[in-house]
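Here is an idea for our session: we take a single protein and study its fold together. To get us started, please write out a protein record for me. Start from the sequence, derive the C-alpha cells from it, and show both lines together. Go ahead whenever you are ready, and we will take it from there:
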Amino acid sequence: METGGSSESSVEPKKGKSKTRRKPKESVLKQKSPAEFFAENKNIAGFDNPGKCLYTTVRELVENALDSAESISELPVVEITIEEIERSEFNSMIGLVDRERVDEALYDDYESAKAREKRLAKEARNQEIQAKNALLGKKTKEPTPVKGIKGRGEASFYRVTCKDNGKGMPHDDIPNMFGRVLSGTKYGLKQTRGKFGLGAKMALIWSKMSTGLPIEISSSMKAQNYISFCRLDIDIHRNIPHIHLHEKQENKERWHGAKIQVVIEGNWTTYRAKILHYMRQMAVITPYAQLLFKFISDASDKNMTIKFARRTDSMPPVPLETKHHPSSVDLLLIKRLIAETSKQNLLQFLQHEFVNIGKSYAERLIGEMGPDFSPKMAVKSLTDQQIVRIHQLFRQAKFDDPSGKCLSPAGEYNLRLGIIKELHPDLVSTYSGSAQVFEGHPFIVEAGVSIGGKDVKLGINIFRFANRIPLLFEQGADVVTRTAIKRINWSSYKISQWQDKIGVFVSVVSTKIPFKGTGKEYIGDDISEIASAVKSAIQQCCTQLKTKIVKKIQAREQQERKRRLSWYIPSYSGAIYDGLKEMAELHGSKKRRYEGEDAELLSKVSTRLITKDTFRQKLAQHVEQVDYEMALEYATQSGVSEEPREDIFIQPLEAKYNFIGCMSPNIGFRLIS
C-alpha cells in the first residue's frame, strides 16, 4: 500500500501548473503579394548578400538601358555611377542624428579588456618574428592585421545612378513600371535580356529593405518636350507604388532616355572585380555601345573612371516578337490563347496563333482531331476535353522547325570586333551557326576563340553570354565550360590547353534560354541540342585558327632557316672561293685543263674579277630572293593579292619640270623631272 501511495503522490501535478492541455490555434488563411514573396526570397533574383546586391543592381540597370536604346535602333550611350556614401551623410539622408554611446558594452563592435590584451600580445609576437627574419635576411610576408573588434563586414551604402539615351517611358506608366512587381513590357514571345519584370523592382525592394530610401526616375521620350520626374517606393504588402513626387519638368536640352538613381546597402570591396569584369564582357558583346563606368569615393585612391568606347555603328537587328510553335505549348497556354484570340473559328485560330501551320495543314489537323471538330466551329466554344485533344495532337504531330528570323544575335563582325577591342589577342576566329530548335524554341549559337591577349590567364578562359548578357557565376556546371574543357581536343588544332592563353567566347540567343536554377546564371549540360551546337561552333573556330597557326609556324621556320643560312654565308663563300682558286691554279699550270664556261669562270677567279666578296653577295641575294618568294606565297594564301610596291621613274615628255604623285593598286609610280 505504501508503494501504491508513493506512486500516487509522485504523479500529483505541481502547484501552479494547469491540468488542461493547450488547444492548438486555428490556422488562418493568408496570402502574399508578389513583392512580399520576392522580398522574403530575394536570392531568387540574385540579391543574396550586400556585395551581390550591388552587382545585380548594376547589371539590371545596364541591361534595361541597353534594351531601351536598342528598341528604337539608337546607338546606346550608357553611364553608370557608383558613389560611396559616408555613414554621417547617410544618417543625415534618413534623418538620423548621431548620439554618443552611453553603454559601450552594448554594441557589436565593443572590445573587452581580455580581447584587447590578447590582440596586443599577438601583434607583439608578429613584430618580434618580423624583426628576427629581418636580421637573418629572410623575406617574409606582411602579417595579416589582427581583428580586434567584432563587426558586420565591410558593407556600406552606395548611390547607384544609370543614365541612357533610350526610348524613355510614358509619364503615367512610370509608377507601375517601377513600383509593381511582375509588371513589364517584355512578356511577349521574343528574344529579350529580361523577361520577368523584376530587375529594377528588386533594386527598389532592396533599397526599401536596407536603407528605406525611395528611388528617383527621370525620363523623357523623343516626342516629349518635358522630363517626367518621379520619386517613389513600393508598398510591399499590397504590391503597389507609393508615390512621393510625380511631376513634369522642363526639357531644355531635348534629352531623351531614362535616368535611375537608387541608394542601397552594398559591398564594393568584395564585388569590385565582378562588376568590372561584367562591364568588360558587356563591352565585348556590344561593341556598338558606349559604356562609361565611374566609382566615386571620398578616398581619392579608390576613385576610377573607365570608358568602353564604341568601335562600330553596326547594330544587330531588333528582335521580333513571334508566335508559339505548336510543339512548345501546354494546356494552360492553349487556354490563354483561346481566351485572348480575336479569331472566331478553329481554322483561323490554328493559322494565326501558331507558327508553321498553314491553311491546308490546319485542315488536316482538324480532320485528325475527330468528328467533334470542324473548321468553322467557334473557338470559344471548345470544351476542356477538346482542348486536351488539341494539345495531345500538338505533341504527337510533326511540324516544321521555326525559323531564326525572330532572333537577334550579335553577329560575327560585332563579336570579333568586341574580342579584338577588349582583349587585343594575337589570333582570333569567330563563327555563327544556323538556327536550331530546342523544344519548339529556335536558338542560335555564336562562338569565338582567341589566342593570347591582354589580361588573359594561361589556359582556357571562358566567356559566356545568353541573349547578349554576360554570365559570371556558376561557371563550372555550364554547358560551355564542360564542352570547352572536356569535349575539345585542343592539341589536334596545334593549341596547348595549358601553355597558351585561350579565350573561348560562346553566345546563345533564343526566345527561351533554358537556364538552370533560379539565379539564371548558367545553361545546363543536359540539353543535347545546345551541347552539340556549342561543340560544333567551337570546333569551327579552332579549325580556322589551326590554318593560321600552321602558316605562322611555317613563317617562323622560314625565318629561322634564313637566319641560319645568313649566319653561314661567310664560311660557305670562303670555302667556295678557296676551292675555285685552287682549281684556277691547276688550270693555269696546265696540270688540269677546263673548257667552256668552267674555264671562263676560273679565269675570272685568277684575274680577281670574282672574289670572295662576290660569292658572299650572290649567296645573300639568293637567300633574300627565296625569302621574298616564300613571303609572297604566304601573302597570296592569306588572301592578300597586293604585291610589294616598287618605285618606277619615268622621264616626262614635257620640258616643264613638275612633280606628280600617282599610286596604282599594285605599283607606286613617281613622275620626276
